[in-house]
Amino acid sequence: MIRVVLPAHLRSLAKLNGEVKLDVDGEVTQGAVLDALEAAYPMLRGTMRDQATKQRRPFVRFYACEEDLSHEPPDKLLPDAVAAGTEPYLVIGAMAGG
């Protein structure tokens, strides 16, 4: 069971309270987690990554175990603590401005 924490605006869009718990088949990678999340909550498709290219959207960041995984390839394995469900996979809405 993978735990995913979403920012408030995505939780509202998906009508969720708190973190999401997902089952991921096969290896636990960023791509697999996002695929499972979008399959369970189709309204989130295209909000975190481009639907055609699967590239991360600007101003969206991915973290796990206090590590920024935003620029890691989607097929990289997530840390064991995330795969075991003891640590969450975090989707963060980044901010910009001056």
Name given to the CATH homologous superfamily: Beta-grasp domain
Shape verdict: globular
Number of strands: 5
User: Uncertain segments of ≥5 residues (pLDDT<50)?
Assistant: none
| Helix-residue proportion | 10-25%
How many separate domains make up the residues?
A: 1
Describe this protein's structure.
It is a single chain. With 98 residues, the chain is an alpha+beta fold. It has one domain: Ubiquitin-like (UB roll) (Roll). It has helices spanning 8-14, 30-40, 80-84; strands at residues 2-5, 20-22, 60-64, 67-68, 89-93.
Task: Give a short synopsis of this structure.
A hairpin with a 2-residue loop joins strand 3 (60-64) and strand 4 (67-68).
Provide the descriptors you would attach to this structure in a database record.
five-stranded mixed sheet; 3 helices; 5 strands; alpha+beta; 19% strand; Ubiquitin-like (UB roll); globular; 23% helix; 98 residues
